[in-house]
From TrEMBL:
Annotated 3-phosphoshikimate binding sites: K20, S21, R25, T159, S160, Q161, S186, D300, K327
Residues binding phosphoenolpyruvate, per UniProt: K20, G88, R116, Q161, R331, R372, K398
InterPro entries: Enolpyruvate_Tfrase_dom, Enolpyruvate_Tfrase_sf, EPSP_synthase, RNA3'P_cycl/enolpyr_Trfase_a/b
GO MF term list: 3-phosphoshikimate 1-carboxyvinyltransferase activity
Entry protein name: 3-phosphoshikimate 1-carboxyvinyltransferase
Organism: Vecturithrix granuli
Protein family according to the UniProt entry: Belongs to the EPSP synthase family.
Active-site residues from the entry: D300
Amino acid sequence: MKKFIAPTQINGIVAAPASKSDMLRAAAAAYLTGKTCEIVHPSFCDDAKAALGIVSALGTQLDLRSDNILFSPGNLKPEPVLDCGESGLCIRMFPSIAALRPETMTLTGRGSLISRPLDMIVQPLRELGVVCQTNNGFAPITVTGPLQAGKAVVDASVTSQFLTGLLMALPLCQGTSEIIVKNLKSTPYIAMTLHLLEQFGILVEHEQYEHFLIHGPQPYHPLSYSVEGDWSGAAFLLVAGAIAGNVSVTNLKLDSLQADRAILDALARCGADLTLEESRVSAHQGTLYGFEFDAVDCPDLFPPLVALACACKGKTVIYGAQRLKVKESDRGIALLTEFRKIGANIALYPDRMEISGSELDGGNVHAYNDHRIAMACAIAALRSRKGVTIEGAECVAKSYPQFYEDLQSTAVYT
Ligand SMILES: O=C(O)C1=C[C@@H](OP(=O)(O)O)[C@@H](O)[C@H](O)C1
Ligand SMILES: C=C(OP(=O)(O)O)C(=O)O
């Protein structure tokens, strides 16, 4: 699908969509309770649908309604294949969870997921008693449990997502596990996992996110879990407000542990005019200045920050470009190529991106089947001379199916 975003001023109020990261963790946790559980304000983005498909294939009965989902344990045997769609979190979080069962299961995926690395999963799972095989470090990945408590070393330099899965599965094993984590990146995502576990009644001890002690068995307590609003999706809307008008985003937890809440810091650094009220953040257009920002631990902020930097006077440096290679696209290259097409002055280095603010001309871009590239190009279009046509625009459904409608609802036509 091609989508044209016209240059326009915006003014409006948008409710942040449900957080994909929180939703996927909640779906896994609801399954792990083994009891009847509810998720309120769920996400039905593509990655959430993949997670729901997996817990259903693992034997959970789901009662899907528009504003809640009821999970109840089924007595069926799990299906042998778990389809992760294009979700990195699903294919790295669910192997440990699937391996709690003794049956052999294969986790597969599609599109870019096929070329995203899974090699960090194999050795630790083997150390914990699981028979585990990948296709030369890539999908599909096959596991035969049961996972057993023990000691393992996890390399988290490429992704935190496998550690999330391990921390969710090991509390259900008999005995104490010790996990040594090397070179963790995206640390706030692990803080988020630990916070969710606490809400389900599970305590994990750790020292500086390097040494984790997990006592088991600790049962998950069933509850009615409300999914937080998504700071990652909200980041695009707030940048849109800061560069092209006024936007208020509601349904945001101001003390959220989500990594992308750091958009507030980035917006403050460039001098954006922000108002924070209870569960609502407003961004108003004003003069913006180039800034420096370290996105190593919040890599999903790169795309909205590139759009922001284009509207800032002077030079912006965003660190952490090494974290962009194995996302839904090679995001460093995708941002460089597509933003250059619409007139941005942008350079990519191994560890950073540098952008010199300038008026964008607009034109045609490709989304690389990457939701965050599509959303970044859409908000950059608001301040461009001719507007931007995004090819493959439908990929926003991976995390934020209502994105274009929400953005459109704020447009002010003069
Ligand atoms: O745990 C999560 O929900 C996520 C962790 C991050 O991945 P990495 O840990 O691979 O950086 C992030 O980029 C991804 O969008 C979601
Ligand atoms: C990288 C992302 O997700 P995942 O790794 O879960 O596919 C993302 O949502 O930007």
